[in-house]
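Notes from the 1:1 (GR / supervisor)

We went over the backlog. Supervisor wanted to see one worked example end to end before approving the batch request, so GR pasted a single chain during the call. The sequence is below; no edits were made to it. Supervisor asked that the structure be written out right there so they could see what the output format looks like.
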Amino acid sequence: MTFEAHPERRPAVVTGASSGIGAATARLLGAAGHPVVLGARRVERCAEEAAAIRHAGGQAIALHLDLSDPASVAAFADAAVAAQGEIDILVSNAGDVVPGTTLGTDPDAFAQDVTVNFLAPQRLCAALVPAMVERGRGDVVLVSSSIMRVAVPGMAAYATAKAGLDRLGHVMRMELEGTGVRVSTVRPGPTLTGMGGDWEPELVSSSIATWVERGLIHGQHYLTPEDVASVILTVATAPKGVHLPLVEVEPEAPPRAKGAESP
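Structure output shown during the call:
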């Protein structure tokens, strides 16, 4: 059995591209020669990233995207196709974290978090992926979280939404098997991004203590956005005939000093 090679020019959409993993992913896709559409609420930050990609010789534009607004998602999808052509790579990375327990989180805030992290990615996939299926090629990368492995108290809405996103990816992989469209999920571990930057310092400290206790953070080992972006690029540009359906990305501990005992 033979597989048709990917075209050299693969228009890509990256959500949550104003900073962190999304911005780093957009830069790598642009450097690899793929036209990129950067989307986020902070469109001015996306515009700066897009300008940097163009300055380096790539093709990129920035479009406003509010994942909590269905009309904004639909308008973004239409504008992305109009600007760069039919999308061949979709990286659904945008997300937000509302801190709070299951019972202590305001229900409206809980619903908002689930919308941004779970329902909106499905809406965006519904807008862009059918054309991939029609063409018989494409890559969808859903950025989930290592929170899927260990439940984390105090992030109830985020954990619920990421669980839904993981299952969405699993079901979509099964449904699209054999169509030429690959659906992959990437689960980053602790990563130094701006997410949670607006939390109160006391909340940050207590949350980190809980994460350490639950085994989500080992010492001071963190990924960088560029680390995760390089994995996303590998997943999305794997050779035809190769599928990386689920990739967990964790920070590597620094080498122990010689003679040090193993934990």
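Supervisor's comment: The chain has one domain: 12-247.
Batch request approved.
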